[in-house]
Design brief:
four-stranded mixed beta sheet, alpha/beta, Trna Endonuclease, Chain: A, domain 1, elongated
Length: about 300
Amino acid sequence: MADKDTTYPLFGAVKTALEAIGFKGTISPSVYPFSTSATYLTGSMEYRGETIPVYLWNAGTPIPGSFITVIGEERKKEGKRGAIFISPTPITSENDEVLKKYRFDYLTLDEIESKLTTKQQEIGEAKKIIECEKNLLLKQGGYVKAEEYKKFIDEIDKANDRVSKKRSLEDFIAYFARDMGLTDIEVDKKTPSSEIDIYAKNEKITGVWKVMGTPVIFEAKNWDEHVTSDEIRNLALKATGCKTRFMVAWNGISGKDEGKGARLEIIKAKERGIFIIVLTKESFLKIVGGISPELIIAEKYYGLIDDKVS
């Protein structure tokens, strides 16, 4: 039924709000009868790294605990966990115990609206900071190490075999990490489970770096073609406990938008608390053009918060 969002306007509004605050996946409404004249609408969304059911109580009273129990037992029999319940009305203290028993989430429309408002404010503030820093930088006449970056880019472009391509890009990333103020930089670091192209500690307490965690890692791909979703997935699995990972894909990544290819994998990783920032040749050419590296990284980091992969 193509007109379900129109038939149930509350569902359409909630779906839009949920997607805006970071819920992923598709959600399709359908009537869910449960021993009452009230209407339930059901669907599913990707939330906290897995796809779970969503139940919207389309009435002016709280969702009954008996209904939550039915869903909880069904999920238990299936060997699955997690569900989201949405209602215009706050949950009662009695029914809150049922939610805790099955570890389900309950959101009111006011809470969704509050989350949406907070997110919009955060994005707005980030954009103001970025714009201010950008204008200040342009007035100052460009980045002071732009010429050094140009030399590295030229060397990378001259590399014509697999070994020299890899080494030239790794040398550049190590320089970039030092320029950013990162410390204890290691090239080709081996861990019990994987090999990391560039590993560095981030002890900075200013700018965007202060929210990116430590350590940070870099994967170097000096490929003629785009880096694929498999490579992004592999990077997301490396170095457990590392929040921020850079994919230096000299010629970009696959997927034209956030719903396809490598770009989709980056959004999925972010839902698990892993931020993958893509840097390309074009990114570094912006530095040659006078833009601060930290400004470029800030735009990409805050873009990820808004589910945009540039």
